[in-house]
Every structure is written in C-alpha cells, then in structure tokens.
Specification:
heterodimer; A: 161 residues; alpha+beta; Ubiquitin-like (UB roll); DNA polymerase, domain 1; five-stranded mixed β-sheet; 5 strands; B: 339 residues; Aldehyde Oxidoreductase, domain 4; four-stranded mixed β-sheet; 7 helices; elongated; binds FE2/S2 (inorganic) cluster; oxidoreductase activity (chain A)
C-alpha cells in the first residue's frame, strides 16, 4: 500500500515522515523518530504505558493512527523536561523511589503532567483517578501517588516564587 | 447482608536462595586505567535495584565512592556464571561474590599504592573518597586514579579480583530425609485487616502491617520499596490474579489486561512496614534476601482475616468473591469461625 505523509510537532520540533496507512503513533514515535521513552505494554489500550499528549490531551498512542496527529502537537516523555532540567514530577519520582523496572514510568509521568497542568492542587483521590488507566506491576502505586502529590506541592511553590 | 470485619496473622521463615548445585554466582572486578572499578556479572537487574546494591557493596569493600564503580551486567554468553535473579538470592549470593572479588582487587590496589608511597601495604587505608593514605597520616596519600595509572603503565599489573559464592551442599539423610536446605533465613510477620461483603463475597483489604527481619538493610529506602510493592503483589495474588480461574479446567482464563485482574491505585489498603535488622553471619555486610517474602506473607494473613470475618476457610488462590460466597453457603450462613 502506498505510504502516506504525516507532519506534526513532537516535543516542539517538526516531524515529517512517510508511514504505512494505519500505522500507530506509538510505532512511529519509537521506530521512525527514535523516541523510545514511550513504552508499549499491550498494543490494545489496556495498560497506559504508551500514554502521550496531543494538543494537551492524554491519549493512548498504541490506539492512535499516526495520520490522526497530522498538524497537531505531540508531547512524549522526552518532552517533559525543559532545557535538560527535570520536571518536578520526574524529580519526585526519582527521590520518592516511585519507579522500579520503569516500564510504566513514562506513561505515569505524562498522565501526572496532564493532571497537574489542569489541576495544580489535586486531592489524593484525584491523583488515583488520573493514573487509574496506567498499570504498574512493581511499585504498589503508593510511592507513585505520593510522588505526584509532592510534585504538585513543589510546582505550586515554584509558581508562586 | 452485612460487611464483616476480620483480622488475620501470618508468620514466615524465608530461605535466601536455594540448595541446588550449591547455588553459585561469580563476579569479576577490574579497574580501568583511570580507576573505575568495573564489576562484571551475568546477573540481571529487573527493577529490584540489584545494580544499586552491588555498587554499594563493591564501593564499600574497596573503599572508593560509589561513582567510581560501574556494574556491567554484560550477558550470559560472556559474563561470569550466575544462577540467576530469583529466590531472593541476588543481594546475598552475588553480593558475597563481589565482596570476595573486590577484596582481591583491593589487595592489588594497595600493593601498587604501597610501592608508589614507599610504605608497607598493611599500613595503608582507602578513605572512601578516592584516595589512599597511610593510617594516621592523611597527608601521605595517593589518589586511586594515580594508583590505577601507575599499575597499568609502570608496574604492569592488573588491579583485579575474582569472587564466587557457593553454598555448602546439603544432602538429605536417607533414613529421616533431614537436611539443611538453606543457610540463611529472613523472617516476616504480617497482620491483615479485611472487610467482607456477605452479599457479594467481595473482600476489601483495609490495612496490611508487616515486620520484616532482613539481616541488614543495605539500602533502607529500597527495602521499603520492596515491602510496599510486595504488599500490593500479595493482595493481588491473594484476591485477584490467576490465569486459570477454574483450574484444572482452562475455561474463562483471562486473555488480556482487561480480564487479568489486579488491584488498581484505588484499591490500596493502609500500608505499614517495620524493618528489623539482625545481621546474617554469612551475608554480605549482614544482608539476607528480602524481595519475595514481602509478596508472600500478606497472602496467608489475608486468608486468615477472611476466616476471622466470615468463618470461610478458602485454601486455593485467588480468594474470589465466588469462593467466599460458596463458603458462606456451605456454612449455612453461620458467618463465624468454627472452633
Ligand atoms: S500499550 Fe497502549 S495502552 Fe498498553
Ligand atoms: S515500575 Fe515496573 S511497572 Fe511500574
């Protein structure tokens, strides 16, 4: 089948690729653009590992045809840090021991970023809700919830300073 | 139709590693020209933190800062032999191998430093910050980097060491079957509190509190991480996970994450964990295996708590709502533990 062009912005940089019709965004990110921070755990929308943002909205990149992001702006885990500085969420995951094997971590952090961008002062229940589409096999979730709550506090302080 | 509460207890003796074939693991340590100590292993870090703890053990034994240690878990074609990362054996088995290899490498390091400083190697100590100095005379010193350079380019020596762990074999006595299957045991105690819905058979774990005796917590934050992750896995094994819900019948087995049940972030109980340290005489710096028992001790505690709540003794996992309801039915709704 003839390949189709897709042009979109990823982490602030323009990307232009020819892809198979129906190729999933997760595969284009990982295999064509070498953005392998996005993980694929199931390819069927049930684990959340492949979570990225499109125009600020969370989506599962394993279920999103790359053609759908034509002209849009995608943020992956590689775009969460700014100028080499870790986002407070990433920092909190590291200092709070909220990652073990790391397979869920990219999706968790992107989901947490979407939450905190929209709601800078979430309750514990709101944090639980925000990550309930992301499976973690290792941590027991507790350190992840705590890391997101402490990152939220950190971001609020940074903003008011 | 009610929600009944119950409390259950479990106590566990957990062997570190296994007996089979002496449960061996090997490690090789060598210094690069600029004094980075490379630890070559075939052991795998799958998220449990092996690389961090092995770095600590090597750094401590040689007397250098952790950032002068590089763990190379190469591959099983080229690395020294390791039985594998399982049976809570990594810290203990591989750690022991690294202590032995690092001590051998340290002896060469000290010999070279002694030659350079024109003193006796036994009078030297490493300061843990990247220098070696004469005991009691910190100014008479040489850096580890200079020592490594001298070894490579002046003395023609390799600063290296070989280490291995191998347990003494124990064979069963033919008459009694008695044997010593393990040399090192960790211990655990867990108390679970549950609430059981007598109408739906659903079990909610309210709290899970544990004490773990781990020999020595070489990295206390990572031990804590194992305890919390393990508690969640224990709940998951006790109440949710199975590939064959009607074993041995394969019917209704889950095929994806929609059907393979696990507790989510909204199903967490109150966690509590206490670490007790009684150093093991045969462990690296006293450590025992911690990992797996943290996922095991919650299971019998939860099963006992369900019995305490509604008098139903379920002896197969997971303890599904269906099994709980069938148990209540079989007891004719007595809802009390039988004496
Ligand atoms: S890989 Fe997309 S949800 Fe699992
Ligand atoms: S850290 Fe392993 S899946 Fe979350």
């Amino acid at each position: 089948m003839a390949r189709v062009p897709v042009v979109f912005t990823v982490n602030g940089t323009e990307a232009a690729e020819f892809v198979e019709p129906g190729a999933m965004l997760s595969d284009v990110l990982r295999d064509k653009l070498d953005l392998t921070g996005t993980r694929v755990g199931c390819s069927q929308g049930t684990c959340g590992a492949c979570t990225v943002m499109i125009d600020g909205e969370l989506i599962l990149s394993c279920l999103t045809p790359a053609q759908r992001v034509n002209g849009k702006s995608v943020v992956t885990i590689e775009g969460v840090a700014t100028n080499g500085e870790l986002d407070p969420i990433q920092q909190a995951f590291a200092t709070g021991f909220a990652t073990q094997c790391g397979f869920c971590t990219s999706g968790m952090i992107v989901a947490a970023k979407a939450l905190l961008d929209a709601n800078p002062d979430p309750s514990r229940d709101e944090v639980v809700d925000a990550i309930s589409g992301n499976i973690c096999r290792c941590t027991g979730y507790e350190p992840i919830i705590n890391a997101i709550l402490s990152a939220a506090a950190e971001r609020r302080v940074a903003k008011s300073a | 139709m009610a929600r009944k509460r119950g409390r259950g207890l479990s106590a566990v003796n957990y062997p570190t590693g296994m007996n089979l074939g002496g449960d061996p693991s090997q490690a090789l340590v060598h210094a690069t020209t600029t004094g980075t100590f490379v630890v070559t292993l075939s052991s795998v870090d799958l998220g449990q933190g092996l690389k961090t703890v092995m770095t600590q053990i090597c750094a401590e034994t040689i007397g250098v800062p952790p950032d002068m240690v590089l763990i190379d878990t190469a591959d099983t074609d080229t690395g020294p032999h390791c039985m594998g990362t399982f049976a809570s054996r990594g810290t203990h088995r591989i750690g022991n191998a690294i202590v032995m290899a690092a001590n051998e490498a340290r002896a060469v390091l000290m010999e070279v430093a002694a030659d350079e400083l024109e003193v006796n190697a036994t009078d030297l100590e490493a300061d843990g910050k990247g220098a070696i100095h004469v005991k009691g005379a910190p100014t008479k010193s040489i850096s580890v980097i200079e020592t490594a350079l001298a070894a490579h380019f002046k003395h023609g020596k390799t600063i290296s060491g070989r280490g291995m762990f191998m347990a003494e074999r124990s064979f069963p006595e033919p008459e009694t079957g008695k044997m010593r299957p393990a040399t090192c045991y960790a211990h655990a105690c867990t108390i679970a509190e549950v609430e059981v819905d007598t109408e739906t058979g659903e079990v909610e774990v309210l709290s899970l509190k544990s004490a773990y005796e781990v020999g020595r917590a070489l990295n206390p934050k990572m031990v804590e991480q194992q305890i919390i992750g393990g508690a969640w896995m224990g709940i998951s094994h006790a109440l949710y996970e199975t590939t064959e819900p009607y074993y041995p019948d394969r019917a209704h087995g889950p095929v994806d994450f929609n059907e393979y049940l696990m507790p989510g972030p909204g199903d967490l109980p109150e966690f509590g964990g206490v670490i007790l340290e009684r150093p093991a005489s045969d462990g690296p710096y006293g450590a025992k295996g911690v990992g797996e028992m943290t996922a095991n001790s919650p299971i019998p505690a939860i099963a006992n708590a369900i019995f305490d709540a509604v008098g139903v003794r379920v002896d197969s996992l997971p303890i599904t709502p269906e099994k709980v309801l069938r148990g209540i039915l079989a007891n004719e709704g007595a809802l009390e533990p039988a004496e």
